[in-house]
Amino acid sequence: MKTHTPTLLADGFVFLEGPRWHQNRLWISDMWGFKAYAVSMDGTREVLFELTERPSGMGFLPDGTPLVVSMANRKLMKLVGGQLVQHADLSAFATGDCNDMVVDAQGRAYVGNFGYDLFSGEPAKLADLVRVDADGSARVVAQGLNFPNGAVITDGGKTLVVAETFGNLLTAFDLAADGTLSNRRVWAAMGERTPDGICLDQAGGIWVASFMTSEFVRVTEGGAVTDLITVPGKAAVACQLGGPDGRTLFLSTYAGTIDDLHQQKVAGAIETVYVDSPAAGSP
User: How far is residue 31's CA from residue 52's CA, in Å, rounded to a whole number?
Assistant: First the structure.
């Protein structure tokens, strides 16, 4: 197993989620800072937009229009002319705060949600995965997932893999040309690790942020761990490959507690490592 030591790129954030490499910068949601940023390779940042309902996963329609999950009001928004407008209302489908997502080449967004009110201490419940088509129409495409979170599309667009955080696994589905999902199966069992944000490399490996074990790991189908990054004393929130050659792995880390989130304590950072296999463009 190969180990890596991360380097700090930028800090001063609250809680960072949904990183995406886009237009030569890292786009990332400060979920509890209620903003999204574009961060350059030298660490400089620009505010892209503000979203009081908490931004999470991001993606892009085929014409380049940015999408972002609006968590608390369970909507998918799009950025048009510098303003956020509604793309889809998911409140009829999501039984908890909406969370991360992945967008396919046809502009279909696959959006997860908590399944229950995590922050009020409601008993845990399974959740559905919702597909939002490019025209904004929405439907449930998979049921009974244990906190569906980060997702990638692999195998040339034929497989969707989603992290089930509290199921401790990565779950795969066959992805049909019409956007339907079938043949649910375990892609990788993660043991005690709790997969949050994930990203895909060109060799078919998936980098996984394990929130509760303070680790980022690269796994291959079947569950073999090839690479390990530890971030002691921090939560490993999300990761994304990017940079000039696609081999910079951006790591979102969080050095606070759940209670600190509501106080908007500054505890989020972006760290980096340089890895072997470059980005595959998902998410």
Answer: 9
Tell me: the pLDDT tens digits for 208-263? 999 999 999 999 999 999 999 999 999 999 999 999 999 999 999 999 998 898 89
**Number of neighbouring beta carbons within 10 Å of residue 175:** 23
**Strand 248-254 relative to strand 268-274: parallel, antiparallel, unpaired?**
antiparallel
DSSP character string of 44-111? -EEEEEE-TT-EEEEEE-TT--EEEEETTTTEEEEEETTEEEEEEE-TTT-SS-EEEEEE-TTS-EEE
The answer to whether 28 and 36 are in contact (CB under 8 A) is yes
Residue 234 β-bridge partners: none
Cα torsion 166, 167, 168, 172: sign: negative
Distances (CA, A) of 254 to 200, 206, 251, 258: 22, 21, 10, 10
Show the domains of the chain with their CATH numbers.
2-274 (2.120.10.30)
For 146, the token pair is 């244990």
Using a cut of 0.90, tell me whether the model's pTM lies above it.
Answer: yes
Structure tokens at 205: 């490996």
